[in-house]
Design a protein that fits this description.
Blueprint: H1 4-20, H2 24-55
Protein backbone atom coordinates (compact mmCIF):
# COMPACT_ATOMS: atom_id res chain seq x y z
CA UNK A 1 0.00 0.00 0.00
CA UNK A 2 1.26 3.45 -0.90
CA UNK A 3 2.03 6.00 1.77
CA UNK A 4 1.80 9.79 1.47
CA UNK A 5 5.49 10.21 0.63
CA UNK A 6 5.23 7.64 -2.17
CA UNK A 7 2.20 9.45 -3.55
CA UNK A 8 4.04 12.78 -3.49
CA UNK A 9 7.01 11.25 -5.29
CA UNK A 10 4.70 9.86 -7.97
CA UNK A 11 3.10 13.30 -8.29
CA UNK A 12 6.54 14.81 -8.80
CA UNK A 13 7.33 12.29 -11.54
CA UNK A 14 4.03 13.03 -13.27
CA UNK A 15 4.65 16.78 -13.07
CA UNK A 16 8.11 16.42 -14.55
CA UNK A 17 6.81 14.17 -17.34
CA UNK A 18 4.04 16.70 -17.99
CA UNK A 19 6.59 19.49 -18.40
CA UNK A 20 8.53 17.39 -20.93
CA UNK A 21 5.53 16.07 -22.89
CA UNK A 22 5.20 17.39 -26.41
CA UNK A 23 1.55 16.52 -27.00
CA UNK A 24 -0.98 18.78 -25.25
CA UNK A 25 -3.32 15.88 -24.41
CA UNK A 26 -0.53 13.89 -22.78
CA UNK A 27 0.70 17.00 -20.96
CA UNK A 28 -2.80 17.63 -19.56
CA UNK A 29 -3.31 13.99 -18.57
CA UNK A 30 0.00 13.85 -16.69
CA UNK A 31 -0.76 17.14 -14.92
CA UNK A 32 -4.15 15.74 -13.87
CA UNK A 33 -2.50 12.56 -12.61
CA UNK A 34 -0.05 14.64 -10.56
CA UNK A 35 -2.95 16.52 -8.97
CA UNK A 36 -4.69 13.24 -8.12
CA UNK A 37 -1.53 11.82 -6.51
CA UNK A 38 -1.29 14.97 -4.35
CA UNK A 39 -4.96 14.64 -3.41
CA UNK A 40 -4.39 11.00 -2.41
CA UNK A 41 -1.32 11.94 -0.35
CA UNK A 42 -3.28 14.61 1.48
CA UNK A 43 -6.15 12.21 2.14
CA UNK A 44 -3.75 9.54 3.43
CA UNK A 45 -2.16 12.07 5.80
CA UNK A 46 -5.55 13.25 7.04
CA UNK A 47 -6.78 9.71 7.58
CA UNK A 48 -3.56 8.67 9.30
CA UNK A 49 -3.75 11.65 11.67
CA UNK A 50 -7.37 10.86 12.54
CA UNK A 51 -6.54 7.22 13.26
CA UNK A 52 -3.49 8.15 15.33
CA UNK A 53 -5.52 10.65 17.36
CA UNK A 54 -8.19 8.06 18.11
CA UNK A 55 -5.67 5.34 19.00
CA UNK A 56 -4.03 7.61 21.55
CA UNK A 57 -7.35 8.92 22.88
CA UNK A 58 -6.76 12.45 21.65
CA UNK A 59 -9.65 14.69 20.68
CA UNK A 60 -10.00 15.48 16.99
CA UNK A 61 -8.46 18.84 16.24
CA UNK A 62 -10.82 21.61 15.17
CA UNK A 63 -10.45 22.89 11.65
CA UNK A 64 -8.52 19.84 10.59
CA UNK A 65 -11.39 17.76 9.24
CA UNK A 66 -13.68 19.49 6.79
CA UNK A 67 -17.01 18.14 5.67
CA UNK A 68 -17.04 16.66 2.20
CA UNK A 69 -19.18 18.25 -0.47
Amino acid sequence: MADALDCRMRASHCSEASRRAAEPGVKDLLAEMAALWIKLATELERTRTSVDDRVFGLPLRKGRHKARR
